[in-house]
């Protein structure tokens, strides 16, 4: 019976360890990606008449919902604090961004 309790306590400890703060560099990377600007609204449309005299049309829209506006630097700071338990090592506006 004591062995069952020991395994239970060990499993609970491992589960709670996963809930702790993550490393600051990893939190900064994830938060910078989540706060980065998204692609704007884009779309295409077509309209015309077929050789049989029928009318055809179509519309295709693609859009990305933003984070509700606001200051991305403040959102970055809140995100890093929530994930790492401390403030970022540098402001959002100085974080290098990948190309492409």
From TrEMBL:
The entry's keywords: Lipoprotein, Signal
Highest taxon above the source species: Bacteria
Endpoints of the signal sequence: 1-17
Name used for this protein in its record: Lipoprotein, putative
Source organism of the structure: Rhodobacter capsulatus (strain ATCC BAA-309 / NBRC 16581 / SB1003)
């Amino acid at each position: 019976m004591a062995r069952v309790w020991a395994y239970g306590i060990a499993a609970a400890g491992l589960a709670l360890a996963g809930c702790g703060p993550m490393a600051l560099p990893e939190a900064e990377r994830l938060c910078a990606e989540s706060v980065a600007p998204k692609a704007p609204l884009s779309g295409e449309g077509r309209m015309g008449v077929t050789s049989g005299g029928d009318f055809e049309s179509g519309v295709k829209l693609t859009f990305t919902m933003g984070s509700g506006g606001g200051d991305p630097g403040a959102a970055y700071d809140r995100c890093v604090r929530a994930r790492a338990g401390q403030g970022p090592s540098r402001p959002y506006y100085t974080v290098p961004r990948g190309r492409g």
